[in-house]
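Record type: monomer structure entry
Structure origin: computed from sequence
Chain ID: A
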Amino acid sequence: MENLKTTVECLRDLVAFHSERINGYEALLNRLTPDEQHLTTLFEAFIKQSINMRQELLDIGANWGLPETQLVVGGRFGLAWSVVKAVFSSKMPSYSLDKCKSGENALLIAYHSVEGTDGLQPALRLVINRQKREVIAARDWIAHFGRLQGQPVEQPLAAVS
């Protein structure tokens, strides 16, 4: 029973992370400057990615008999979720790609935290690991676009397996 409770909390967190990522990229799309319009396709791809990942997580919950309404509230990793929300909703002036890098890094930290949770259902752990690798690839695209815009090259965060 405790394992199911832990799994539900992790599903809730990941669903919340992706909802916030979707909202964040939609907001960034609306604030792109004329010099940043080339990022539209990238941001739309990340929105679609999070929609698909969130739906996959909701489907896993449904397979375990959990209604969607039970999975759309925050769980135990609320602090990590709040970091993702703060990064994407910040009104501080910065380049859109800077916010994206910060948001993706916060999301990866959240995925790593959830993935390392004791008592997580093994099938869910596999999905989380795969989704985390997809987020790492998204972060790599952001770094690529940053280099194209002449932003300084940063040392990447260590990829967590």
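Annotation 1: The helical segments are 2-30, 40-63, 68-71, 78-89, 96-115, 122-148.
Annotation 2: The chain has one domain: 2-148.
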